[in-house]
Amino acid sequence: MAIDRFWQVARLRLRALLRRQSVERDLDDEMRYHLESEAAFRVERGETPAAARRGALRDFGSVELHKDYARDARGTRVVDGLVRDVRFALRSLRRAPAFTVVVVVTLALGIGANTAVFSMIDAVLLHPLPVAHPAGLVSITEAITDQLPLQPLAYPTYRAFAERARSFSGIAAFATQDAIVATTTGAAEQLQTAAVSGSYFPVLGLHAQVGRLLAPSDDDVPGAHPVVVLSDALWASAFHRSTSAVGATIKIGNNPYTVVGVAPRGFRGTLLTQAPRLWVPATMLADIGLGGFLSAANRPRLFGLRYFHYWRVVGRLRDERASARAAAELNSIFAQEKAKAPAKSASSMGFAGRPVRDPVGLMPVNEAAGLSDRAALVRFVSILAGVVALTLLIACLNVANLFLIRAGERSLEIGLRSSLGASRARIAQQLGVEVLLLGLAGAVGGLFVGQAGVHLLASFTLPGAISLADIPFNLNARVLVATMALGILTAVVFGLWPAIRTSRTSLIASLRDTQPRSGVDTRTLLLGGEVALSIILLVGAGLFVRTVQAGLRSDLGFDPAPLAAVRVNPALGGFKGLELSNYYRFATERAAQLPGVSGVALATHVPLAGFGTLPFVAGDKAATSEASVDDQVNAGWVYISPNYFDVLRVPIVEGRAFTPGDTARALSTAIVNQAAARALFPDGHAVGRQMVHAGSMRFTIVGVVRDTKYASVQDRNVPMVFTPITPDFSDDVHFIVRSTRPAAALEQLRHALTAVPPHPPIREARLVADQVNLTLEPQRFGATLVGTYSLLALLIASVGVYGLVAYIVAKQQREIGIRIALGARPGQVIELVAVRIALAVGAGVLVGLVAASLASRAMDSFLYGVTRTDIPAFAAAAAAMILAALAACVIPARRALTLDPVRAMRLE
Amino acid sequence: MSKPNDLVQGTLGILILKMLALESMNGWSISHRLRQVSADALQVSHGSLYPALHKLEHDGLISAEWRTTENNRRAKFYSLSRSGRSYLRSETVDWVRLSSAITAVLRLSEV
Fold first, then answer.
1. Cα distances (angstroms) measured from residue A559 to each of A554, A596, A597, A657
2. CA-to-CA distance for B32 and B35, rounded, in angstroms?
């Protein structure tokens, strides 16, 4: 095709598409010119003007037909038709605003909610890592005992693996902990810092965006390489992304470090719940200020400790598919190492449980995620996934029903069009366009709803104290495409199927069809389905709400309301010994002088904040032999100041509280709660007896306190062991104050604790009462999310009820009119309409209640204080549904009652 | 409904091109002239003329412009484009070859 010809063709096609009106006008002009010329020619030949005109027209034939052929020649017929269909669809949708709005909003909510929640689930469970070839990366863990699976490794174990495992191209270790960091520009702040082996960045396949990352040569001699790699976030906040950051000096735990580079943007370590802001060589771990984990004597031996399970290890497999063989190799290396060293039993090291065979395990690095209880997390997000999927299903059912009802209302119009010569394909195309428009609008709306949903989700917390605010995630493109496709597919299937069916009906049939016939059953069925699914959601929401209520009402054993707690760690600033005990003394004095404060206590744990447990054995059993695992009592271990039980108002039921004398002799006396006393000494008396931890730590029990809830609101009688906090205690400590105005006291306490040297930064500050809410956070999340969705479902189902009632009333107008004219009472008229609705709603409610009692099984482990067949929750769900359905009936039913019989008859 | 098909498919196009090769014309003149030169033997239905014209235009074989006629009317005038000219040439050769072959065959059967 010559180039000028190509341009002409392209120009004409474009013009035909874009300037349709002017093209049509040209066509009109051309035809008119032809007719006039022909007429003029005939007049010249002697015909009268009128006859000439008629002749010309007769000769020419149908002008419209010619225009149509000319349009065909333009080759834009299909697009033209589409444009016309879109206009027509927009017009007809504008005429049915309620229908349009409800369909679009329903789809948008279904699509948006699903996208947001599934994007969150994707981010949490799959946790995609911004590293090279993440599929080849595995996390290497050790099961210390059967009760302690998936634990980090000891450093010597890591070294043995790194040096001898052939199945891996590289193995790296890292440990995260908080450190006090002072950049040149900013004030000292507490930042999460990771100590990583030299192999860490090479194994992950990362490259610096500025400078360099850490290399094996940075990690050869302990304490020798004070270098640091910054995260993108820290680089931005402390150095404003200036390249001069490389070579700058920052202080970590009072020691100077040289910045060598910046990690790639978006890299926040490999753990889901942690986001280190800076990375130092592993051999600098002791230098950055390890807290109370290690005694001073152990610190130099840090890298030789065989039972210091502190290092998380990742490896890159040479062959992604050979992970079983790699695990076997690691286990054999592990066994060889163990044979070299003198054997120590797990229980003598203070670990609960029995040893296991082949303790070393591999899992995909994104699944490791640093979660102690992944199963609970999976269970919980499965519930959420089920809820939003149900919502989408309800939305789809509702859209289907609305389309069916609309098709019924339009059967006359469609019959008329088909009798006027529109082909079935033509009608289907036109309706298809309408349906597609609705689907697209719903999808676009879903995008906005999803975006809003992502923001809302960020304020919630998942089980395992995973705050969603800490996990950056956005709408997932794959999820979005999938949900949009589902929504549009629903619209197309349920929008087109009834439309095609109606287009088959003849005009006569559609004119005659005043009585709803087949298809009505489908509508009733769909409505019943909607109702049943809504009931499941309502019951789920009810159970979560009842759990939160029960949790808030539950007897904790103490009153959290007047208590405020602030956590600090003065040892992180490099303080030791006397400096530390001075800090505790002065800080306590200051706190005690705050207005409204009536007591100040110290403790390593705030009640209800959650903690791990450690095994204890009754002293007499420990003496007899290597204590068996069955004798172990796993108890929470809290270090407290002597006045702790005073401040919390927890009564000592037997024996005495700690005295300053106990405090001086560290780790020789203990107080236990009733649960621990019962578990350790079934014969009754605990005071004066001994218990042993880790084979050699022996405690004399001096008192028994009443049971209180400690780990969470849900726990029942968790054994607790309390030992005195030593004057130079060097780990995280909570200052707990009792105050008449706890909220104000919390603020004042923050200031008081930072005012005393070494001015430790506040690690955490909270009202203990808030902690009650916090432990119920996942349930609250569930209640909010499921509650919102169940209300949505209720609304959607009500719209469904309204639509169906309105449809029936419209279809049966004549019959109703006749009956009213014949003197039917209102009750009889309502009966005419109500039977089918009542059937649909009633059956839906019943089926829904049964299904809910089965579905609630999945929620069992998250319920507290209610059973999963909680009668009030089920009754409330049924009542809400029935009330909503009744409310939805009112308007169309009133219309039926006030129907003017004469007008109704005339309508036909 | 099928399209009017009163001339051998495709031949109307060649006739129009030939006509326009002599001078540019509007639609009515083309139909008029066709009747004249063929002594009314080729009665082109208008139903096929305009689609054919528009098809040729959209295929780039002829180009169109709006001109004012002597009696001050707006009319669409078609003229042959460069590619239309070469197309006409090759089509004419084909047509002559085909029609003479058919004529020869028809003569044969007369004997």
1. 11, 17, 15, 19
2. 5
Strand pairing of A733-739 and A597-603?
Answer: antiparallel
What is the tens place of the pLDDT at every residue in A750-780?
A: 888 888 877 787 878 888 888 777 777 778 8
Whole-angstrom distance, CA of residue B102 vs CA of residue B111: 15
The residue of chain B with its CA nearest to that of A10 is B58
Mean pLDDT of chain A: 81
| Phi and psi, residue A376, nearest 5° | -65, -40
Q: What is the pLDDT of residue A788?
A: 85
What ipTM was reported for this prediction? 0.80
Mark yes or no for CB contact A70/B54 under 8 Å. yes
A151, β-bridge pairs: A142
Place of tokens 């998936």: A150
Does residue A33 sit at the B interface (CB-CB below 8 Å)? yes
Tokens of A803: 């639509």
A116 three-class SS: helix
Hey, is the C-beta of A15 within 8 angstroms of any chain B C-beta?
A: no
Q: Are B57 and A12 in contact (CB under 8 A)?
A: yes
d(CA B109, CA A316): 88
Answering whether pTM is above 0.80, one says no
A204-to-A163, A172, A176, A320, A473 alpha-carbon distances in Å: 18, 9, 17, 15, 21
Does residue A29 belong to the interface with chain B, where contact is any CB pair within 8 Å? yes
In this structure, are residues A896 and A816 in contact, taking their beta carbons and an 8 Å threshold?
yes
Q: CA-CA distances (angstroms) from residue A822 to A349, A615, A829? A: 92, 85, 11
CA angle A378, A383, A385 (to 5 degrees): 90
Q: Which CATH number fits domain B11-110: 3.10.20.70, 1.20.1250.20, 3.30.70.1170, 1.10.10.10?
A: 1.10.10.10
pLDDT in tens, A235-272: 988 888 999 989 999 988 778 899 999 999 878 888 87
Closest CA to A443 of A383, A484, A385, A492: A484
Distance from CA of B51 to the nearest CA of A (A): 5
Hey, are the CB atoms on A33 and B45 less than 8 Å from each other?
no
pLDDT at B22: 85
Give strand pairing partners of A175.
Answer: A195
The residue extents of the domains of chain A are 3-75, 134-368, 375-552+777-906, 563-769
Q: Judge contact between A140 and A363, C-beta under 8 A.
A: no
The reply to whether B6 touches chain A by the CB within 8 Å rule is no
Q: Which member of A2, A31, A74 has the closest CB to residue B82?
A: A2
Q: Is any Cβ of chain A less than 8 angstroms from the Cβ of B65? A: no
What's the DSSP call for residue A861? G
Position A504: which residue type? R
Residue A832, token pair as written in the block? 């005419």
Q: How confident is the model at residue A671 (pLDDT cuts 50, 70, 90)?
A: very high
SS (HEC) of A132-179: CCHHHEEEEEECCECCECCECECHHHHHHHHHHCCCEEEEEEEEEEEE
pLDDT > 70? residue A74? no
How confident is the model at residue A517, as a pLDDT? 47
Residues A784, A463: contact at Cβ < 8 Å?
A: no
Contact A429/A500 with Cβ under 8 angstroms?
A: no
Q: Which of A30, A58, A64 would you mutate first to test chain B, the one with the most B CBs within 10 A?
A: A30
The rounded distance, in Å, linking the Cα atoms of A296 and A105 is: 64
Looking at the DSSP bridge assignments, the partners of residue A636 are A720
Whether the CB-CB separation of A614 and A350 falls below 8 Å is answered with yes
Question: What does the H/E/C string look like for A28-59?
Answer: HHHHHHHHHHHHHHHHHCCCCHHHHHHHHHHH
